[in-house]
Amino acid sequence: MTASSSLSSPAPTAASAGPSALPSATAVAAAIAQVESVVLGKPHQIRLAVACLLAHGHLLIEDLPGVGKTTLAKALGRATGLAARRIQFTSDLLPADILGGPVFDPATRAFTFHPGPIFAGVVLADEINRASPRTQSALLEAMEEHAVSCDGQRHLLPAPFFVIATQNPQEQAGTFPLPDSQLDRFLMRLSLGPPGRDAERELLAGGDRQRVTDALTPVLSAASLVAVQAEVLRVHVSAPVREYLLDLVAASRVGSARGLSPRAGLGLQRAAQAWALIAGRDAVHPEDLAAVGEAVIAHRLGSRERAQALLGVVAVR
Amino acid sequence: MLRPTHHILWFLVVLVLILLAAITYQSSAAWLIGLLVLCAGAVSVLHTWRNLAGLTTEVLPPVEAGSGAPLTVAVIVRNPQRRPSRAIELLLRTSAGDAAGWIDAIPAGGSTIAMVAIPPARPGRLTLHSLRFGSAWPCGLMLAKRRVEVAVALDVLPSPVGQPLPPRSDPGVDGREEREFAGHRAWRDGDGQRLIDWKALARGRPLMAKDFSPSGQGGERWFDWRDERTGGMEAANPAAADPTAADPAGARAEQLTRWIGEALALGHRVGLRLPAETIAPDAGDAHLLACRTALARAVQATPAPVRPRAANSSDQVPLPFPALLLLLLAMGLGTLLHATLVPWWLLAVAVVIAVTSLRAAWLGRRLRIAPALRYGVLFGLVGALALSGRIGYGIEGSVPGLIAFVWTKVLELRTGRDVVICCCFSFFLAASTLLGEQGIGATALSLATIVLVVAALAAWHAAGAGTPAHEVPSRTGGNGLRAASALLLPATVLAALAYFLVPLPEVQKPSVRGGARTGLSDQLTPGAIGSLSKDPTPAFRADFDAPAKVQPDRLYWRVQVLWDYDGRTWTRGVQPDAEAEINARRPPDGVPMRAQIVLAPNARQMLPIPDCPLKPVEAERSRKQLPDALCRLDLPPGSGFAYSVVFHPEARLHDRPAGYIFRRAVSVPAKTSKPVRDLAARLGAERIPGSAGDAQVVQAVLEYFRSGGFAYTLDPGTLGDDPMGEFLLQRRRGFCEHYATGFALLMRLNRVPVRIVLGYAGGEVNPYGGFVTVRNADAHAWCEVWLGGEGWRRVDPTAVVQIIEDGTTPPRASAAGIAAAQAGNAEGFLASRWQRVRQAWDWVDMRWHGTVIGWSSERRLDFALAHGLNLRWLAFLGAGLFAVVVLLVVWLVLVPRRHGSAADRWFARLSDRLAAAGCPRLVSEGPVAYAARAAQRFPSVAEPLRAAAAAYADLRYGRNPDLSERLKELRRAVRAIGRP
Predict the structure, then answer these.
(1) Angle between helix A43-54 and helix A262-278 axes, rounded to 10 deg
(2) Are residues B51 and B145 in the same domain?
(3) pTM for the whole thing?
C-alpha cells in the first residue's frame, strides 16, 4: 500500500480504536481535531505533521505560498500548548538573528545571552532556502543538537522543539536549495497542496484564520507532549515489521548510491511508531510504515515516484 | 527440481566398493559403515531438495539504468522454512548476458538480499529473462535447481560519454558584437579570459564563463545520428580502442548524449535527427530524457555486437581455509587408521602436502603445482610402494596406493569434483579399517572419520563447490560440523534400521581374509604359543548362567586335541571327520552350567569350548561336532560369532577312540634319544600294573617337574636337535608347550595313553558383566591322560612348576599365577582405576560384538520367531517399514510445508478465498489495508473482514497478544466470511 492509497482510508481515530487505545492517544486525537478545525481538508498531512512532532523529528513543507503553511504551524503550536515563532528567512539573515547572541547589559556591565526566536516550541522557518548556507546550517545544527552554543556556553532549547521549515519549489532564482545532507535532517517532507472544493468553500465561509487559530484551546502542554514523545519510543515494533523496514531500506540502496541512510531507517521506524500511537495502538502495523513512508522517504531518494515505487514493490511481511 | 551431479558416480562407485569389501571380508562393522554412508547420501539428497524448497523471490531492477556502467539487480529471497537455507547460487539470464550472484545463507523465516551485477549493457532495451537458483549443498550429490521467470524490461539510456561538445562555429572573443548573452556555464579549458564571469568568482562561486549564442537563430542546435564526427571521434578516442566498447552504435548514442546534455546546459534548444525519427528542438530536462530515450531506441534498432566471453579468472581464488582444514583432518584420520600398512615416508609426504596447501590457503594464495610435478609425485609414490612390495591383492595391497593417490589429489584441488573424489575415497579409507578389527573402538574411529568427511563436504559446498558457475569455491564456507551432525543423526537412525533389516549377507567361500587375528594354530610347533603370549587382544568372552558356582578364570577352554608327535611338532593326524557324540560324565553332585561365548573375529574354524562339555555346541551357524569334544565351524567366524555350551568343570570325557587311534596315544618318535628313554624308565621304575600304576607314573613325572629345578619362562631360547632331551635334562626352562610335550613324551614312553590339548586357560573376570575375557595371551597347552576307570584326566604339568623367572607373568593355571592375578587387582589407586576403565570398556566391547557385530540373518530370523513372527510376517514387517520410509520421504519431499503460525495459515486461507473471488492481496499491502480494500469490494462481509484483519494484525504484530482469544476471533471471522 502506498501513502497515496492510505489517504482514502485514514487511520482510525482514538475514539474508535477500542479498548486498546492509549490514554495519551486521546489527548493527541483532541489536538489533531483542533488543528483540523483550522486547516481544512488536510487530515492526512496534519496527522503526519503531528507524527513528526511526536517522533522527535522536524518537518519540511514544500509548497506554494498561501496554502496554509503558517496556519498549520500556528495551529499546531496553539493546540499543543507550545509557543510558536516564525522566522522569515532572507538572504541577509545572519545566524545570530535566529539563535540570539550576547548583548551588553549596562546595569550589570556584562554581556548576557539574549535568546533568539529559535527559543520556542514550534519554530516556523519560512522560505529557508532564501537564507545563506551559513545561516541554514546554524539552524540545522540547532535542530540536531537541541541546543545553541554561544561564547562557549550551551543554551538548551525548550524540550519539545519542532521546526517546520518551508520551501518554495517554484522560485529557484537567487536561492540556496538545501543540499541532500541537510535534507536528511528533516524527518518528513510534505506538500499541502490546494484544499478540496468543499474545504475551500468552508474556508471562505469560516472567517479569519488568524482569529480562529487564536481561539483554539490548548489540549496538551509541553510537559505532557514530552511524555507522549517518550511513549512513542515504547510502541512495540514486532519482528516482521522490523524485517519489512529492513527490506525497504535495503531495496532503496539497490543500484543507487542514494539509498536510505541508517538515520532514515531510524526515523521511519519512529515515525511509524508515532503513527501507530496516533491511531491508538501500542504496536506498529505495516500500514503505519506505508502511511508515513512517502513523507519520510521521498525527499531522501530525490523523487516521490521512487518512493512510491519502493513502497509498492517491497512485500509486507 | 533435483538433478544428479556427475560427482554422484564417484560416490556410488565407492559405496559399492565398501559394501562389496564388507561382504568379501565378512565384516559386519564395515557393512554397517557402508549402510551409514548410503543413508547419509540419501539424507543429503533430501537436504539438498529442502534447501531450496519454499523459497520466494522478488527481483528489484534498478530504478535508473545508464549504459556503460554495471547495473545491480537486487534479488530479495525469503525463506519461510523453519531452518536456514544455505549456499545458493543465482544466475540471472539477461539480454546483456548472464550474471551470477551468491547467497551464503538465508536465516530461518528470514530473508536476504543478493546483489547481482549485470555486465554493462549497451543503450536500448535490457530484458531480465529469468532467475535460476542452484545449490548442491550439503554433499554435492544432487543439484537442486529452480527457475523463476522474471520478464522485466528496462530502458538503458545512453550515458554521456565521449568528446566534449565541439564549437558550432568559432565563438571568438570578438564575436561579442554579433551574439547576445545567453547565460553562464561552467568554465572550460580554453575559454578566453574575457569570457570569465569575474563578478561571480568574486562572490565565491565557481569559475563560470559567459556564453553567447548567435542572435537571430533562437539558440537552436541540431544533432544528427549520421554526423561523421560521432564516428570519427572513435578513432581519436582511446576508449574506443578497447574491445569492450566495440559497439559503434552505442558509442555514437553516448557521444550524442553528451553533446545534447552540454548543449542544453548552454541554454540551446536542441533538435535531434535519427534514422527513424526526428525530434523537434526543445529545452529542459524532460527533453533530454526524450532524446536519450530516442537514442536508446535507435541503438536498439542496430544489431548488437558479439560480446566477448569474460575469461574465467577463478584460478586465482584461494581455497577456503576451514573447509580445507576439515578435509585434511578427515583424510589424515582415515590415513592414520591404516598406519600399520603405510610406510613412514608416505606419511611424511602426506604431512608435507597438508602443510603446504594449508599454508597457501591461510595466506590467501592458490597452490600452483605444475602438472608434471603432480604426476611425478604420484608416480614416484606408487613406484616406491610397488618396489617395497606394498601394492598387491586385497586390502593390504590396495590401501597404500589409494592413500598415495588421494593425497596427491589434494595438490590439484580445484573443482567440486576433486573435493568429492577426495571425500569419497576417505569414506573408503574409513570403512576399510573395519575389514579386520571390528571392535567398538575401531568402529568409533571410523565413524569419527565419516563425520569429518561429511563435515568437509558440507563446508566445501557451503563455500560454493559444485555449483555450475562456481566450479571453484571462493567463499569462506559455513559450519561444516553442524551440517554434518544434522545430516548424520537421521542417517544413523536409518542405517541402524537398515542394518536390523539387512544384516551382512554371508558368502560361502570367502576368498580373502584380511586382518583377522591368527588365533590358535591347529598344531603345536615350537614357539607357537610363545608368539601368542604377547598378544593382549581378546580371543573370546564368555558369560555364564551360574556365575556364583564357577570360577571363570580357572576354566580350561579346549580348542584342539593333538595326537601325533614327530619329535618337534604335534599334529592332530588322521581323524574321523564325522559328527561325534560327547561321552562325558559329571560328578554326582555337579549341576550342568551353560556358557555363552562371543568369539572375536578369528581366522580359525575351531571353537573354544569350556572343559569339559556335556552336550554339543549350540550355534546358529552350521558346525560339526568332532571327536574329542571339539567343534568346528564350516566357515571361519569372520564377524563376531556367538554360541553356547553346556559344561561342567569337573566332568571327564569317557570316549575311548577306536584302537588304531588309541594306539597313537602311546606312540613316540623313533628318534627319541637315549637319555630321555632312560629318564622315562627311571620315573616309571616303581609302577604297579594297571591304571593305578598309570596314575602313579603321572605323579612321578609331575614330582620330577616340581622338584627337578624346572623354571617357567616365556623366553626359553631355541632348542637343538634333541629338543626334549635338552629341555628335560639340561636346560629345564620353558613354558607350557615344553612342559606339555615333555610330560606327554615321558607318559608315552611308559605306555600311558596321553594326548595334548591346545586351548586357553585363565582369563580375566570383568566385574561389570560377570563375564570372563580370555585373551590370545592366555593360550595354553596341557595334557589329557587316559586312566582306565576315570576316562581322560586333565593334567597340566605347567601348573606344578615352582620357579617363575623374573619378569615373566606366571601361567594363569598355576597357583602362582592365580596369586599374581589376585595381587594385581589391588595394585595402587591409579592402576586399579585404570583396570576398572579397561574392564568397563571390555564390557562395552563384548556387548558390541555380541549384539551389533554378531547380528546375522539367522539371528534376525530367531528374533522374528521369538516374537511370534513367521517368515510371512517378517516379509510384511519389512514391507511395512519400507512403506513407512517411502511415505516419510514423500511427505518430506512432496507435501508443501505449512509455514508460519496458525494465525498466518488462517489469514492465508482468507487471502486465498478473497483472491479466488477476484480481490488478491498486493505484495505491499498490510493485512488491515487489504481488508479495508476488500470490504469496499464485498460490503456484505465488511465487518468480519475488519475483525479478521484486526485480530490477525494483533496476533502478528502486537505486543504479547492474547493468543488463544485472538485466534478464536480470527477463526470465527474467517468462517463468517466463507467464500465471498
Answers:
(1) 120
(2) yes
(3) 0.62
Domain membership of residue B285 as a residue range: 173-236+248-301
CB atoms within 10 A of CB A103: 9
Exposure on the CB side of residue B190, measured as CA atoms within 13 A? 7
Instruction: Please say which residue of B456, B491, B515 terminates a domain.
Output: B515
Mean pLDDT, chain A, rounded, equals: 82
Q: Between A5, A313, A316, which is nearest B60 by CB?
A: A313
- Whether B131 and B252 share a structural domain: no
Contacts of B959 in chain A (CB under 8 A): 236, 238, 282-283
Contacting residues for A72 by C-beta, under 8 A, at least 6 apart: A35, A39, A42, A45, A46, A49, A61, A164, A192
Q: Where are the alpha helices (DSSP H) in B440-553?
A: 440-462, 480-501, 528-532
Give the length of chain B: 980
Q: For chain A, which domains are there?
A: 3-313 (3.40.50.300)
Closest CA to B950 of B963, B936, B969, B965: B969
Q: For residue A306, which residues of chain B lie inside 8 Å, CB to CB? A: 63
Q: Chain A residues contacting B, CB < 8 Å?
A: 1-2, 5-6, 9, 236, 238, 240-241, 243, 247, 250-251, 254-256, 282-287, 290, 306, 309, 311-316
Residue B834 lies in a domain: no
Supply the pLDDT for residue B808.
65
How many whole angstroms separate alpha carbon B546 and alpha carbon B594?
Answer: 7
Kindly list the residues from chain A whose CB atom is less than 8 angstroms away from the CB atom of residue B926. 1, 285-287, 290, 316
So what's the ipTM on this one?
0.84
Same domain, B359 and B253: no
The residues pairing with A111 across neighbouring beta strands, listed in sequence order, are: A104
B456 is a domain residue = yes
Three-state DSSP class for residue B187: coil
In terms of Cα–Cα distance, which of B600, B231, B659 is closest to B442? B600
Amino acid at A30: A
Residue in B63, B72, B76 nearest the CB of A306: B63
Q: What would the pLDDT profile of B826-877 be if each residue is shown by its tens digit?
A: 556 777 788 888 888 888 887 887 788 878 777 777 777 777 766 777 778 7
Question: B561 and B421 in one domain?
Answer: no
For chain B, percent of residues with pLDDT exceeding 90: 12
Are B958 and A313 in contact (CB < 8 Å)? no
SS3 B673: coil
- A-chain residues within 8 Å CB-CB of B157? none
Specify whether B343 is located in the same domain as B463. yes
Amino acid identity of residue B358, one-letter, is L
Phi, psi of B437 (to 5 degrees): -70, 130
A240, A241, A311: residue with CB nearest B924: A311
Cβ–Cβ < 8 Å for B113, B76: yes
CB A299 within 8 A of CB A183: yes
Angle at B481 between CA B475 and CA B485, to 5 degrees: 135
**Residue that the C-alpha cell 550524442 belongs to:** B256
- Torsion angle of the four alpha carbons B757, B762, B763, B769, in this order, in degrees rounded to the nearest 10: 110
Is residue B324 domain-shared with residue B292, that is, in the same domain? no
d(CA B587, CA B608): 22
Query: Is B750 inside a domain boundary?
Result: yes
The least confident of A77-91, A251-265, B903-917 is A251-265
Boundary (domain end) residue, out of B806, B829, B852: B829
Structural domains in chain B (count): 4
How many Cα neighbours within 13 Å face the side chain of B266?
A: 28
**Residue B624 resides in a domain:** yes
> B502 and B641: one domain?
no
- In this structure, what are the phi and psi dihedrals at residue A112, rounded to the nearest 5 degrees? -120, 155
Q: Which of A9, A254, A311 sits opposite B60 (nearest CB)?
A: A254
State whether B43 and B185 are in the same domain.
no
Q: Do A247 and B74 touch (CB under 8 A)?
A: no
